[in-house]
Every structure is written in C-alpha cells, then in structure tokens.
Model the fold of this input.
Amino acid sequence: MLREKTVHEISFMDHTPGQGQYRNIETYRKTITAYHGETVTTLGFEGVLEHHKNKRTLSFEQLHELAELARANGIPAASHDDDTAAKLQVNKELGVAISEFPITIDVARQAQQLGLATVVGAPNILLGGSHTGNLSAAEAVKEGCADILCSDYYPAAMLHSIFIMHKQHGVPLPEIVNKLTLNPARAMCIDNDYGSLAVGKKADLLIIKILDGYPVITHALVDGKVISQLEYRV
Done:
C-alpha cells in the first residue's frame, strides 16, 4: 500500500497497558471493561494483561523499514500517544514528523522542540479534558503546544471546538482555524494545494453561520463549486 501510495499517512501505535495512553493500569481496566467486557470476563483482567505482555510486536528494524518506505514515497509518518522524551527521540530517528496525542504538556513541548507537529483531539475540548485523564487539549492549545486539532472519534467536534476555544478561552479565530486547516495540510505535505485561501490552491471551502448559539455549515464547496447547501429553521 505504501509503494502504491494508496495511503496518505502511517501512524505507529502502541496501546500496550503500562505505557502511552494507558500508563495508569486502572484507567486501562475501566476502558477495556467498557469496550470489551466479555473478553475481560473470559480471560480475567490479569489474563488480558498477560496476553498483551506476550503478544507479537514489530521490531525497531521493521518500524524503520516502514518509515523509510513511507519517506521514499512522500508519505508522512506519525507516532501515537508519546509519553516520554526517550520515545520521542526514537520516533524522530525513525523519521516520524507528527506526534499524535502526546500524553502531557511537557512531552508536547519536547515534540515541538524536535520539530514534530503535535496533534490533539477536538472531542477532548468538548469534554473539557481527556477521557483517560491525560493531556487537556484546551490547555495544550492555550500553552502553544498543540499544532493540529483532529476529529479523533467525533468529527463534528472539529467545528464546535473552534468556537469553544474562541469564546471560552479567548483564542483568536484565525489561530484556532489554522489548527484545522493550514497546519494539518503542512504536516501532511499537501499545503501547496490545501489549507488556506490563495491563488492556485483548491477552493475547498465551508461557509459557517452561528444559529441559536451553535455553529452550522450552510455551504460546502469543492474546487470552488457548491456541492451542498443547507437552510436551517430556528
């Protein structure tokens, strides 16, 4: 798929309990019980931990091979749930350019210092914090440690997070909008065509209104042509 360029990004993820997103084992217990209660019942929680401890993993050499293949084909590589400076350094050596969901403010700062674009989730802003007790996306934005806002598991959060950060946290609209447009386009190496309004770029636009206190999309344009138009009754 990398050689055929049928993917646009690769991400190295490790959800093994005891590190990354699940440094707190109790948080991991609650999460997998909610998602996979039957498995926990069958194996027991200790059995689940043992399974993940012994499961097959990719070697550094395999990760390096994938990263090199991605680089050779102009495909950005990302790391996921970075929680230590050491892990960031390893990922930097692999050729990773994007740090998705750094676990703490300090790690997010360190990622930026290494030249990695940092990504936080827009749903985190709507919730008022991480559902697993990790980095607050709003805090990261205010501290200048978040370069990109992504949809994560709730795409509508992208639109609403813009106005929450502007109205509740005082972040200027151009700054927060760039975190959903120009900054991700740069991280994905497609900013020559996307991410901002400029002569020669793709005119992929959303027109947004605030109705009854909520942002809504009234028009969607692709290549400058209206492909969707909605009227709302309030």
